[in-house]
Structure formats: C-alpha cells, structure tokens
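User: Can you fold this complex?
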Amino acid sequence: MNHRYPRSRNTRSVLLSLLLTLAFGLQLSTAGASNLPPEKPKLPDGVSIVSPGSELWREVRRRDGVPEYDEVNQGLLVNDLLREIKRSQQMPQGVSQVNQVDAGKLINAQGRRWAEFRMGMLATYSGIGLAAIFVIVTLFYVIRGSVPIEGGLSGNVVKRFTDYERIVHWTLAIVFLFLAITGLILLLGRPLLIPLFGKEFFGVLASASKEGHNLFGPLFLVSLIMMLISFGRRNIYEKGDLTWLLKGGGLIGKGHVSGGFFNMGEKTWYWMVILIGLVIAVSGLILVSPNFGQSRVIMELMHLVHAASAMVLIVVSVGHMYLGSIGSEGAFEGMKTGYVDINWADAHHDRWGKRCHEEDKIISAEEYARLQGQVPQTTATEQAK
Amino acid sequence: MIQQIIEGPLWYLSLAVFCIGVVWRLGSIIFASRKQDLSAPRGSAAPGAIRTVFSRFLPHREIASQITLPVVAGYMFHLGLFALLFFAAPHVIFIEEHLLGIGWTPMPHWAFIVAAQFAFFGLIVLWLRRMVSPVGRLISTLDDHVSAILTFVVMLTGCFALLEGSTGLRLLHRFTVELWLIYFPFSALMHTFTFVPSRAFTGAWFGRRGIDA
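Assistant: Here's the predicted assembly.
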C-alpha cells in the first residue's frame, strides 16, 4: 500500500526542517565564532607581522593540526607539552644555542606558583602584619602612654653615643626607611595604590621605586657593616639579660628591670637588624645582579626570602621607633644629642648608670648647655649687664 | 604644556640665571676692593697660593684621625657627583645635544651606578654630620641645609629616572635640576667655583707673610 503524505503536511515538514537547520547553523556559527582566535591587533604602518617568531610557530602548529586554542581554558594556548608541564609541575629541559642558565627551559612551571604566592599570601600577610603593628603600637600608647622617668628629668646628663655612632645609626635608618617605603610600594602598591591613583601613576611610581630601591640596596649593606663594627661589642649578650626578658623589659607589669648599656630587648633588635639585614642584603644582591649564573628558581626563592625577611624587619622597626621616641621619656635624646639624662640611665640601664656614677661621668646641665653651643641663661644675663 | 615649559622657557631661564649669577659672583669677589698690604713681604705670594690650593686637599695631620669620616664622605660625594655629572651616559648625550655640541665616551653603566652610590652615601653622611655634631650645627645656616637637600633631591629624581622609560620622571629630574641651577649662584653651592680662588687668596696671604700653613 502506497501511503502518501498530504501536500500540506510535506510543506510543513520542509519548512520546519529548514528552520531547524537554520537555527542549528546559527548556533554552530556562534559557537564557532567564540572558538576563533581573537582578532589580530592592528599593526602600525609599515609593519606586516607583529612577531615573526610567533607567526611562524602558529603556522607550524596549523600545519601539524595542533589545536591552536583550548576550549576548556578559554583561549589559552595549549598543546600536549604544555598540558604535561601543567600536570607534572616540572620543567622539561631542552636544548638551546643560547649559552645561559635556564636557556633550555621552555617554561618555568614554578613561576606561576611563585607569582601566586607573591601576589597572594606574601602581599596579604605583609599588609596584615604592617597594619597590626600600627594598631598594636597605637593601642599601647593609648593604654600605657609614654613610660615616664622615675623622679623626672634631672637636667644632668651622661654621654651615651659619639657623633660617629649617631651618624652610623641615622645613615642606616635613612637608607632603611627609603628601602622600606620603595619596597612596600613594589610589594603592596598594586592592590593599594592602583585603586587610589590609577595604573598610569602607579606605573611611574613603581618604576621610580624599583630604580631607587636597587640603587640604595648596596648602601644598606655598607651601613650594616658600619653598624656591626660600631655597636657589635656592646651588644654581646651577658649575665642578667635573661632576667630583663623574663620581666618583659619593664613595659609589662610594674617593678624595676635591671639592664646594662644595652638591655636584652635592644640587643635582640640589634642582632635582628644585623642578621636579618644580612639576609636581606645578600638576597637583594643576588636579585639585582642576575648575570652571575643564578637560575629563575633561585631568583624567585631569593625574592621571597628578601621580601619576607624585610617585612619582619619593617614590622619590628615600627616597635623600635615607637620605643625610641614617644614610647619612652628621654630615650630619643640619646640618638638626637648623644647625651641622656642620668635619671633615664638609672631607670632603664641601671648597671651602666651605676658605672657612670662611679666613674664620675655625669655632666651638669650648665656644662651640657655649653657643649651643645647653648649659652646658659645666667651667663647671657651677666653678659648683658 | 608642563613639558614645554620645563624643556623650553624654564630651562633657558635657569641656564641664564646660573651663568650670569656665577660670573657676577666671581667677578664681585675677584674685583672687590681690598686694603693694600703695606707690610714688608717675608716670602713670595705665588708659591704660597699654589701650595695651599693643593695642600688643602688633605686634612692636617694633627686632626686627620678625628675627621676621617667627613673627609672620606666628602671625597665620595664630590668625586661621585663629578663622575655622574660629566660621565653618565644620559648626561653626556644631553651635553652633546643641548649644550656643547660635542660629546665624549661615557662611563659604563655599572660605574654610573657605583658613582651614584658613592655620591648618595657621601651626601647623607655629610649632612648627618652637620646635623649631629654640635659644632656642625652651630656653623650651619639654612642655606647649607637647603643646598644639601636640593642637591639630594636632584640626585634622587635622577636615580628615579634611571630606567629612562618615563617622560614624567625625566621631566621631574630636569625640573629639579633647573631649580638647582637657579639656586646655585646665590648659595653655598658656589663653593664649586670659589674654593680654588679662596684657597689661593689665603695661601698668597700666608706666603707673603712667610707663614707655612
């Protein structure tokens, strides 16, 4: 029996098929368009190829039928080699005519891990650490205030530091602060400064910071060595230092804590500066001189060591600056003028203060004024008469 | 707009102030009227002048050990700055293109960096000594501090522009240089030109009186 569809039904079927084909075709063309490589950038006049090397590579890949763009990774260039590197996290060693370290390595698989750590944990925890120390110092100042000298200032002083020692201290301080600021701009600038000032300004600032940081870096090492020579002997730990530590240096709780010329806290800070500073300086020199055969992995490792140790020093230095200035009455005078009040010496460094008394090193207020080039009031009055 | 001002009128103004100011200051010193020395000469002035110009490059033996740091820092700063100013590649190119029309072989990049580090370290130490030492504080004027800080800022902006990749940083450096040039003739920075005649004058005076100093 020969069944024939009615004419109208055939027409409907053909129309439906056409519509479906059109819809399918449209969808395919849309999907196909999303898989196409992005449009090539417009070339400047007189330039025919953006990058001859990559164009040639692309042609070879097309000839060999290697898929140029990965649908899963949304346009990232992938092939079997890259997939294998991503999977194994190892760096395949190739052969190159370039006679340099890492020249035979196509891709540094550790690089992504380093970049993620640098932009992630390192930057985040550095920012948190820095914010935390400022909060702690502020709270401490609000709660405890400036630690006063027992009996107040007497006016009589003792010499604590020579001019040379203070120059060494302030040289190191200036260089350290400059490096800390420029280093923080480089480490935290992207998340903190770009939203405030924009990418263009940050680009200029980061470039300036990087050049300044690299140039001042070796000065930090020189200052550090001068610091080691000038202050090293007096910062060797001695009997009684542990007691100071156990009593929290007198900041926590009440009661007198015995200390020598430098107390346990100052000595610990000093050795932190020297030892961590040396780590920072050496890792910085490795970073700033990449032409001594160090590989990328070593550079990345040195960068992390450099940044992490610098952050430790920066955070602790805020505490040092606080205690050396507004945190302790009379402390700043030591590094400002080289002299400290004898009552301050007795209160914070009693063993050294006792020696000053015994060796008759106390200078009267009048003599101190004369040494500082200030004419005492009485003398000025007499001269006027 | 800013670029045009910095590279145009301000540059020519600063250069004119510098040149005219320096010539005027030196002229006023050289042609200043002095009282005639009527005393009988006990020695010759010229050898004394020459000897003093060179002998002052070294500190007196009696105080050498006490001023080692400022002497070393002074040499580091001045030699570093001289090398930077006249032998840094960007400066040599600038001098050739904008000032003299001739250039010379610049120092290699590593020497440029080392010279800059010497200059920075020397200047920081010298300024700190001025601040830290009671005698240094007493004899320092506002002009001394402004001169030191302005020189430091010029060097610092130059250091920031080391990469030579940013027009903004280059202009900032050039702007600070122009401020420095304008300030130069009226400040302690003039010792760049006066130290030789000053030493020679003192040496001649000593030489004429037979003083060996």
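Chain B touches chain A at residues 69, 113, 116-117, 120-121, 124-125, 128-129, 131-135, 137-138, 156, 159-163, 165-166, 168-169 (CB under 8 Å). The two ends of chain B are 56 Å apart (CA to CA).
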